[in-house]
Amino acid sequence: MTQPNSSNSSPSPSSSPQDEAKSSNPRRSALAAYRALGYSKVPYSAPLLRGKPQSAAKALNNSPILAHLLELSRDSEQRLYAVKSLLPTQFRDAVKSSTLDGENWCLLVPNNSVMAKLKQMLPSLAAHLRSKGYKVQTIRLKIEGK
Predict the structure, then answer these.
(1) Sheet order of strands, 104-109 included
(2) What is the pLDDT of residues 75-94, one digit of tens each?
């Protein structure tokens, strides 16, 4: 059953000019939808970002400061990869690389027991890194979350 349209005097299967205007202008249809919900103005929305979107890696490489931080992070991860074979198997997944400041490198450990064991291994880890070509003077250990 079709119900007669009260706004139009002639029922027609095609859309009215008002419907076509609404579909051609999405802003008008959005405003009409907001008004139907009881809003008098369009709700505030955050401004759109200007320019082209780009990936995070590209943005990091375009900024000199961020590119330097990315390089330090990669170097720290490479150092950890180089010493993982020397770590006891139960500690390999627990130890994480952290900051790299010149010739000082920091490792993150989960607890005091891992820290105590790795403190004994620090001279051999530093010597191994030097043999691989990394400039390492000291390796510090820090407990995660402290």
Answers:
(1) 96-101, 104-109, 138-143
(2) 999 999 999 999 999 999 99
Are the C-beta atoms of 99 and 106 separated by less than 8 Å? yes
Task: Tell which residue, 117, 102, 106, has the closest CA to residue 144.
Answer: 106
Cβ-contact 94, 133 below 8 angstroms: no
Domains of the chain plus CATH, in order, are 71-143 (3.30.300.180)
The overall pTM is greater than 0.70: no
For residue 42, how many other CB atoms are within 10 A of its CB? 11
Place of tokens 């400039």: 135
* Predicted pLDDT at 18: 52
Q: At residue 89, what is the residue type?
A: T
